């Protein structure tokens, strides 16, 4: 297997990847990155959880001209959650490249605040179709100089009824451009879209390795926000993990939960983006050496974290997209061992649970917990 350097990734981005514990490219990255760098059109059939986001983000970031303030790359995603996830990945990668600006454009945001941001230099926009068209009609986003267009999770856009909006967005971009289409499945309508708007695309197919996910017992624990900490402790007591990772949505929530578990005398520490590299390494060393039993982490820890002996993953906060879910639960059930993953779901989380179940193609077992 090639490394990122062999794929032509720049030193600046190699340093960022290393910082986030990403050292080896996934099959989709290995196949797609060198091709995307040639400037050709690409159809990539790949499931969520294969690392496809970095497969298009890395070459896009390197192709952007920071001296130009116009929108040079447009990534269209079906949901605000996916748009935000891609934006977070992109912002991590450009953190030390201050001349490249990334903006997420999606429904539910404060329009005035968004308009203010759009007055600055934005080279990469990640958007949902509806809100993007709204800005195009207001003439607050100009796509006339877009060099790269990415349609991510195209089949989801079809299922959600966005295909007409997607066509309209494509028509707003230059006819001479690079188009990258990523989709888990290839329905006839997506094939037709590709035939209509792409020029001699290269086809890449990456099979999803479901071996690890199939070896993981996945359980949904129905609870409420108020009872969530008590419920977590009940499940921990019942399960008695050897090593476990507990995922939280934000750094603040991870710190708060870590403090609560420490107060209850659990062997626990936290891992998130606010920690220095030295502190992160110290925490990981303690976890690998079983000096701590529980690691309370944000999604930063889900990337490239490979620790032998993790028997359980607890999604204290439900992930907002399938890719994050697969990355998180994939920290257990490794090296042929069976793993267990518990996802805590409050009533407001039902929509995200539905998204995850649709994405992995199975209904998860439910377990109801009484408060202790």
TrEMBL record:
A GO term for molecular function: RNA helicase activity
Residue intervals of the DEAD-box RNA helicase Q domain: 2-30
InterPro entries: DEAD/DEAH_box_helicase_dom, DEAD/DEAH_RhlB, DEAD_box_RNA_helicases, Helicase_ATP-bd, Helicase_C-like, P-loop_NTPase, RNA_helicase_DEAD_Q_motif
GO terms classed as biological process: response to cold
Pfam families: DEAD (PF00270), Helicase_C (PF00271)
Top-rank EC class of the record's enzyme: hydrolase
TM stretches of this protein: none
Enzyme Commission designation: 3.6.4.13
Motif Q motif boundaries: 2-30
Taxonomy, superkingdom: Bacteria
A single Gene Ontology CC term: ribosome
Domain Helicase C-terminal per the UniProt entry, residue ranges: 215-372
Helicase ATP-binding domain ranges (all copies): 33-204
Family annotation (PROSITE patterns): HELICASE_ATP_BIND_1 (PS51192), HELICASE_CTER (PS51194), Q_MOTIF (PS51195)
Keywords from the UniProt entry: ATP-binding, Helicase, Hydrolase, Nucleotide-binding
PANTHER family for this protein: ATP-DEPENDENT RNA HELICASE DEAD, DEAD-BOX ATP-DEPENDENT RNA HELICASE 47, MITOCHONDRIAL
Annotated protein name in UniProt: RNA helicase
